[in-house]
Amino acid sequence: MTGDVALACLHSHPIFEGHTLVVPQRHVSSIYDLPTQDQDRFWRFVSEVRKELASRYSVESFNIGLNDGSAAGQAVPHAHVHIIPRRPGDVPDPSSGSALYMADAGTLFAKAYEYHTTDPWTALHWYDKATNLDPGMYKAWFNKGSMYEAVLEWDKAIECYLKVADIQPSNVAAARHLGLIYFRSGQFSKARYWLEKVIRFGQGEVVLTNPSGASMKVDLVDMHRTAIAQSRRPHSIFVSYPWAEQSELQMTLVEFLRRAGYDVFIDVDRIPQQGSLPELPWQIEQGIAQCDALILLWSAASSRSSWVRAEVSAAIGMIKSVVPVLCDDSPLPPTIEAAIRSGRIVPVHVRSSTDYQEIVRVLKRQIDISQRTVAENERRRTEITTHNGVAFEWIRLHGGMIPDFAVGKYPVTQGQWRAVIGTSPAHYSGDEALPVENVSWKDVQRFLAALNKTTGAKVRVALLTDIEWEFACRAGSLGNWAFGDNEDLLPEFAWFCDNTGWAGAPGRVIRTDIGLSDANSLDTIRSQRGGVALDVSPYCTNPVHSKKPNRWGIYHMHGNVFEWCDDAEAGCAANKSVRGGSYCSTPADLRCSSRKFLREDLRSEAVGFRICKLAAPQTLLARLADLVRAR
Question: What is the span of the domain harbouring residue 274?
Answer without folding.
Answer: 236-368
